[in-house]
Amino acid sequence: xxxxxxxxxxxxxxxxxxxxxxxxxxxxxxxxxxxxxxxxxxxxxxxxxxxxxxxxxxxxxxxxxxxxxxxxxxxxxxxxxxxxxxxxxxxxxxxxxxxxxxxxxxxxxxxxxxxxxxxxxxxxxxxxxxxxxxxxxxxxxxxxxxxxxxxxxxxxxxxxxxxxxxxxxxxxxxxxxxxxxxxxxxxxxxxxxxxxxxxxxxxxxxxxxxxxxxxxxxxxxxxxxxxxxxxxxxxxxxxxxxxxxxxxxxxxxxxxxxxxxxxxxxxxxxxxxxxxxxxxxxxxxxxxxxxxxxxxxxxxxxxxxxxxxxxxxxxxxxxxxxxxxxxxxxxxxxxxxxxxxxxxxxxxxxxxxxxxxxxxxxxxxxxxxxxxxxxxxxxxxxxxxxxxxxxxxxxxxxxxxxxxxxxxxxxxxxxxxxxxxxxxxxxxxxxxxxxxxxxxxxxxxxxxxxxxxxxxxxxxxxxxxxxxxxxxxxxxxxxxxxxxxxxxxxxxxxxxxxxxxxxxxxxxxxxxxxxxxxxxxxxxxxxxxxxxxxxxxxxxxxxxxxxxxxxxxxxxxxxxxxxxxxxxxxxxxxxxxxxxxxxxxxxxxxxxxxxxxxxxxxxxxxxxxxxxxxxxxxxxxxxxxxxxxxxxxxxxxxxxxxxxxxxxxxxxxxxxxxxxxxxxxxxxxxxxxxxxxxxxxxxxxxxxxxxxxxxxxxxxxxxxxxxxxxxxxxxxxxxxxxxxxxxxxxxxxxxxxxxxxxxxxxxxxxxxxxxxxxxxxxxxxxxxxxxxxxxxxxxxxxxxxxxxxxxx
Amino acid sequence: xxxxxxxxxxxxxxxxxxxxxxxxxxxxxxxxxxxxxxxxxxxxxxxxxxxxxxxxxxxxxxxxxxxxxxxxxxxxxxxxxxxxxxxxxxxxxxxxxxxxxxxxxxxxxxxxxxxxxxxxxxxxxxxxxxxxxxxxxxxxxxxxxxxxxxxxxxxxxxxxxxxxxxxxxxxxxxxxxxxxxxxxxxxxxxxxxxxxxxxxxx
Lengths: 792, 202
Fold this sequence. Notes:
The complex is a heterodimer of chains A (792) and B (202).
Chain A: H1 15-26, E1 30-34, E2 40-43, H2 45-51, H3 55-58, H4 63-66, H5 73-85, E3 89-91, E4 103-104, E5 110-111, E6 114-123, E7 126-135, H6 137-173, E8 177-182, E9 187-190, H7 192-199, E10 228-236, E11 242-254, E12 257-266, H8 268-317, H9 323-353, E13 362-365, H10 366-383, E14 387-392, E15 399-402, H11 404-421, E16 426-436, E17 440-448, H12 471-477, H13 483-493, E18 497-502, E19 508-518, H14 528-531, E20 542-546, H15 550-562, E21 566-570, H16 573-582, E22 587-591, H17 599-607, H18 612-615, E23 619-623, H19 628-636, E24 641-644, H20 649-661, H21 678-688, H22 690-716, H23 720-736, H24 740-754, H25 759-784
Parallel strand pairs in A: 14-16, 20-21, 20-22, 22-23, 23-24
Antiparallel strand pairs in A: 1-2, 1-7, 3-6, 4-5, 6-7, 8-9, 8-12, 10-11, 11-12, 13-15, 15-19, 16-17, 17-19, 18-19
Helix pairs in contact in A: 8-9, 8-15, 9-13, 10-11, 11-13, 16-17, 21-22, 22-23, 22-25, 23-24, 24-25
Chain B: H1 7-32, E1 36-39, E2 43-47, H2 48-59, E3 63-71, E4 76-83, H3 84-94, H4 106-131, E5 136-137, E6 141-145, H5 147-153, E7 159-169, E8 172-182, H6 184-201
Antiparallel strand pairs in B: 1-7, 2-7, 3-4, 3-5, 3-6, 4-8, 7-8
Helix pairs in contact in B: 1-4, 1-6, 2-5, 3-4, 4-6
């Protein structure tokens, strides 16, 4: 390419070459050509425009001459390298803010961003330097804009990352486990808490199937179609321990697929507390049940000897006695009955506590029941010079269906208390209707006295067990303090309410309300519970007595003979069935616990006899089993009536009369337990004085508490002989104070050891013994103040 | 330093490159208005295949290259080679950027090209000066890709003179390599340059 001799703006010598010159002149790139001395030999139109220097002014001068103000070091070096050693250079706008001072011409001058290429050029044996200037202004602007955008984006991203970090920190610090679980049950996101809840130590829970943590092989989330709130779920942790958690979940989206957002809150501690409470409750319930059973057992144990005592007493009454002997006999009988009453209370309250109360349903006239009761209690009121009267809503038909025995028991208790705590005036028993419908009536029964009254702050305690307003006064008047508590439980069991209104000095009103079913069928002539006390005239009958215990046999025989009955005795159930099959009896008196075949089985066998007259003989159960279900059980198994031991002659006569008359059983009043022998205490009191007796009781308590501990310790160490010796000592002390059940329990220990019983048996006996001791002593203290206790 | 050159000649090359690097450093410091120091700890001559292996192990991934062809007493290609991360660090240093440079864009490419151009020109001219001959260079190209392809694609194609160049720019230490891909005929000229330097020293 021959460039020599070219002049800017001049036509080339040859048309073929001319076009190149025009092209260089007009191209949109700056073209500068320097000669070997760096003088400008070509300066195209673009350069003229960008520099403001026309070609005419540029030619023949150096760049430094054209731009005296500019710093041209870099391009100078490049030109030097090109001309001196033919090296090529690139000059970038990146490192060179301005290579040449060039400006875009127009409205407002604007610097031209440019880059330069500098290289040597040889033509016609002469050396030149070619400088190309590229305008990159638009590209630079575009790039600056893009860079600004990128930088904004980066800042935005950084901001997002920071806020994401903050959110993440909140998630991580949360005490609630948070997870996102996809529809296939895989954990897609989890915070640290979730991992620590489920994994116990490991940290990567993401990616695991939730199934691993369910106690049942199912996916809880399968069933979630709506948000779940605080569902309690039991999970299995990685270490197989249990996790109770409250789970909330709601559908969400994760990575554009359906998922669940779950919150998991650890409630294991709450659950444990809950379980502890339940097990505590169960233990408490179990203890109550055990106590009730224990009482039933003691009842059985006490009833047998008491049966003997009371029966023999009845026999003695019929014999010739002098006045003093008769008086002693009265005391014994009175004490025995009092003892029975106390045992009734104790057994009652324990049954009620254990929730074993069973309400009977009989049809009776409530008004008649009250009248009879008042008649019965009038004698005691009379003794104190009190007036006992009734006030009954006459407009009502009082034939109702309810547990008359229980209502009678409550009234008896309330009237008894009223008599006890009233010195003068009147006791009024009031029966009112609150409202009466066709089939039911709500009624209120009140016992209003003019007695000592009760301080207000004592009212709420009055209906709890063993509470007595003034223990000293109560000792003087006697009573266990159980009566009102029993009444309260019974009333509540019947769906009613009980309460007291009283002011010291102005008497008390004890009331209870009941909703009773009205018996609209027919009125009956008399209410049996009250009338049952008086034996009707009896025709002598032919009686089969089934009883294996000789003493009981003898007592019963005497009572029956006294009434003129003919008696055949059987000692086993089987014998009884054989006799009943062969002989016609008016009544069978059947003990329950019999050898070979028990009373219930024997009765069923009798009922199955082929001869209908033989099979339908009335069978009256004689039982020391006083538990509430027992009587029902016997009646359901073909027995006609149930009598509890010790046998009350009047009740026996009534039962026989009823049986002969073909009446249904009504008397299933359970018996009671007896722990202490009040007569012993009384005679002791007579001999050494009441104060000394109290002292003795305290002394006995102190020393015995130690003795019991020693017995337990000795048993634990297997020192059975020591155990026996201690029990023997205890037995003597207990007998002296009339603690029959304690001395019996001690005797049992002694004999058991003598018979080489096992340690397990011994432990049971010791437990029995301690129980008897604690119970008896509580009663002893109650009874210590007054001879002859009567149920409160 | 294989059989092409004696250890003494190798030392001479190292020295020659140090002279060139010194020139380049001066030029760059002026341009960037910041001190730039180059050092050439060693150089080594390898047949092409060995050089390809060497850089494959050295860089692994893609590299950035500023390449210039040269002609004169010897012909071939000169390549300034950087690991991509190093090239980014260098660009950041020379562009006075506050933020780390994430990718080679046009601006970085231009800056790196000019720097490579200055360095390669300086190194080649130091040979030219010794031989009292001109070593003409082409305009530089900026390339990115596997080192092997760069070397094999270079002009000359037989012997590779590898010169380790360490940069210290704005407190950053950046590692790079200047390589000359030569043909066998160029070796004697190189040796001539070395002996001239040695002769001057002795």
